[in-house]
Design brief:
Layout (H helix, E strand, L loop, with lengths): L5 H27 L4 H21 L4 H19 L4 H5 L3 H31 L14 H32 L6 H13 L9 H4 L4 H26 L6 H4 L19 E5 L5 E5 L3
Antiparallel strand pairs: 1-2
Helix pairs in contact: 1-2, 1-7, 2-3, 2-7, 3-5, 3-6, 3-7, 5-6, 6-7
């Protein structure tokens, strides 16, 4: 077994930071029922910086580096928003800087496609020839091929980030914190290569794997809730037993809960208990 290369160490460090980030976010969500933007910004900056370091270690040129920089700008929109023309005219420095950030990313992404897309297509088997074969130095050919492969990985990362944004806007991801968490995961594990044997055993993008396993875990939760209700002697109503637990009023103080039952008064003055799904 060969020791990890510097870029693999960088990828493993991002995974370690991701574990710390998600552990802290889970605790805050449990205690406060919210995770502030500042949390994602602090950890996201560290993970994004390490992603840029890995891209440099993979011998990316300026175009690929700026393209990666642009992807980070896209991700930043979830926590700092997008620049506004009105605010830029009024002299907002943060909006001007973010706009320059976007512009550099767009220029870099376009240049990377122009320079490396033909070689990337050859790597996919979609082209019979590639510009890199016009080179005479074997080391230069290998470098051109690796940059084409890096372009493909960055395109895959961009598709993943776009999918997260679409899922959030379509309410497939409920809540902004869920979308921010998925973006942090996408940046921390943009591709499997570099984190042990996983890249050799699966072609599924990391972010898609996280979504699949999260969905499977979510499907188990109703059965856990049903079993807890049955153990405490509550077997109905059926529409609520898989969704919520029945607690006594004396159990609620000091607990972080959503109360789904309340008392309403009907038109004839009778008081009834109303139970809501959310």
């Amino acid at each position: 077994m060969e020791p990890p290369t510097p870029d693999q160490w960088t990828a493993l460090l991002r995974c370690f930071i991701l574990i710390l980030c998600m552990a802290g976010a889970a605790l805050m969500d449990h205690w406060q029922r919210r995770v502030p933007n500042e949390w994602w910004i602090r950890w996201g900056v560290a993970i994004g910086f390490l992603l840029l370091v890995e891209v440099i270690l993979l011998e990316a040129d300026v175009a690929l580096f700026l393209g990666t920089f642009g992807l980070l700008a896209w991700c930043s929109a979830s926590v700092i928003g997008t620049p506004s023309l009105k605010d830029m005219r009024e002299g907002s420095r943060i909006d001007i800087l973010v706009a320059i950030w976007y512009l550099l990313g767009i220029i870099g992404g376009g240049a990377a496609l122009y320079l490396h897309a033909p070689n990337a297509l050859w790597s996919l088997g979609l082209a019979t020839d590639a510009p890199m074969f016009q080179l005479t130095d074997m080391a230069a050919i290998e470098l051109a091929e690796s940059r084409g492969l890096l372009l493909l990985r960055l395109i895959g990362l961009a598709v993943g980030i776009g999918f997260i944004e679409i899922a959030w806007r379509a309410r497939l991801l409920y809540g902004g914190a869920d979308a921010k968490a998925m973006i942090v995961v996408a940046l921390a594990i943009p591709w499997w290569i570099g984190i042990g044997p996983f890249g050799e055993t699966t072609a599924v993008p990391p972010m898609v794997s996280v979504l699949i396993w999260s969905a499977l875990a979510f499907l188990i939760l109703p059965f856990v809730t049903i079993s807890r209700n049955i153990r405490t002697g509550h077997s109905g109503p059926l529409r609520m037993i898989w969704h919520a637990e029945r607690w006594g009023l004396d159990q609620i103080p000091g607990q972080q809960v959503w109360i789904l039952s309340d008392i309403v008064e009907t038109a004839d003055g009778e008081r009834k208990i109303r139970e809501r799904m959310r």
